[in-house]
Design goal:
single chain, alpha/beta, Rossmann fold, Dehydroquinate synthase-like, alpha domain, 2 domains, six-stranded parallel sheet, globular, binds nicotinamide-adenine-dinucleotide, binds zinc ion
């Protein structure tokens, strides 16, 4: 056995903590920053609130991040960081805003357009503008990972950039910020958390600390996702989901995700499923596929969660998906039987190789067909 665990991000988890932003910046010597968020925050009044919490230290705003952010958005954001001579950035939002800011902070000091680092094989310099990541969904865990997922529409690619320089300086997790998340987004992002936990555990690169984190995150999701979905004002459920999100982020950042994330990328690109819903599309079925791998360690994991085994855990995920209105079958997702070979080919992302049971195109097609019986 051989493993290494490293986690360089300072984490502050504090309900209402965003109101202390100015003091947190001051104590870190950060004076002039750029706020990165998506248009929802400009419309909701939260953008102005955060500018005031920052006590005048946020000198510029980039508020045009779209879901599944494009490389051009990260380039524009990097340009703003350079032009304003910013000594930090704040990302306020879900994975989209955080990923855009992470890539921009690294590219701002490495130079050149991001496409070179994304798909061009160019190495980032290792230096980055310090980032304060403030997640508003529970969620991607992007505040503690060194990965930014960007879309390149010209090449038809959605892919991660990973580099140690993309770890945030500080993750500030304030569950109050998630109270406004609508139910469908609560469900999709919550199922993303569960995908991170389960895939961290069954990844071929699993390791003991991440296994423990994965178990804790999965317990929290099974206990609290339905509550947060049914009553968005339930601050206790929101806190628990934020806790699950950051713990799942810590669980998967080293082992990496596996088949459900590999399959999610084309489901998002070709069929428009939001990230978490796209991951959940195969997650329940993969519980059965992976149940007996490595001497049944997933069955043992599911039993620790109170299930009879991995298949029963998968059935609970299917129930949660149906209850929360997620798309479950091929027909729900608008996928024709004839599309399956091309879809399977597009799932050949490197993360697919982390799945404990090898999945070729024929097995992927069979997996997608099985959604019809859910
Ligand atoms: N970097 C990583 O480690 C990592 C991990 C998983 C996923 N991702 C990526 O993150 C992206 C998805 O992020 P996401 O699921 O958080 O969604 P998102 O950031 O795209 O946000 C989804 C929607 O929710 C809205 N929203 C966010 N916070 C809100 C709030 N507090 N109140 C009301 N509305 C709010 C946004 O405006 C947006 O319309 C995808 O691109 C995915 O590939 C990254
Ligand atoms: Zn994810």
């Amino acid at each position: 056995m051989k493993w290494t665990y490293i986690q360089p991000v300072e984490i502050i988890f504090e309900t209402g903590g965003v109101k202390r932003l100015s003091a947190l910046l001051e104590s870190r010597g950060l004076t002039k920053g750029v706020l990165v968020c998506d248009p929802f925050f400009a419309g909701s009044g939260l953008l102005e609130a955060v500018l005031s919490y920052a006590g005048g230290k946020l000198a510029a705003v980039y508020a045009s991040v779209t879901p599944n952010p494009r490389i051009e958005e990260a380039d524009a954001c990097a340009a703003l960081l350079r032009e304003t001579g910013a000594d930090f950035a704040v990302a306020l939002g879900g994975g989209s805003a955080m990923d855009c800011a992470k890539a921009a902070c690294a590219a701002a000091l490495s130079g050149g357009p991001i496409v070179g680092y994304h798909t061009g094989g160019k190495k980032l310099s290792g230096a980055a503008v310090p980032l304060i990541a403030i997640p508003t969904t529970a969620g991607t865990g992007s505040e503690v990972t060194c990965v930014a997922v960007l879309s390149d529409e010209a090449q038809g690619v959605k892919a991660p950039i990973a580099d140690n320089s993309m770890y945030a300086r500080l993750a500030l997790i304030d569950p109050e910020l998630t109270l406004s998340v609508p139910p469908r987004v609560t469900a999709a992002t919550g199922l993303d958390v569960l995908s991170h936990a389960l895939e961290a555990f069954w990844s071929r690169n699993h390791q003991p600390i991440c296994d423990a984190l994965a178990l804790r995150a999965a317990v929290l999701v099974f206990e609290n996702l339905q509550r947060a979905f049914e009553d968005g004002d339930d601050i206790d459920a929101r806190e628990k989901m934020c806790e699950a999100s950051v713990i799942a982020g810590l669980a998967f950042t080293l082992p990496k995700t596996a088949a459900s994330h590999a399959c999610s990328y084309p489901l998002t690109n070709l069929y428009g499923l939001p990230h978490g819903e796209a991951c959940a599309f195969t997650l329940d079925l993969l519980c059965a596929v992976n149940a007996e791998a490595e001497n049944g360690r997933l069955n043992a994991f599911a039993r620790q969660l109170g299930f009879g085994g991995a298949r029963q855990m998968g059935a609970e995920i299917t129930r949660l998906k149906k209850l929360t209105g997620m798309r479950v079958t091929l027909a729900d997702a608008g996928i024709d039987e004839a599309d399956l070979p091309a879809l399977a080919e597009k799932c050949r992302h490197p993360n697919l190789l982390n799945n404990p049971v090898p999945l070729d195109d024929a097995l992927l097609i069979a997996l997608f067909r099985r959604t019809k019986s859910l």
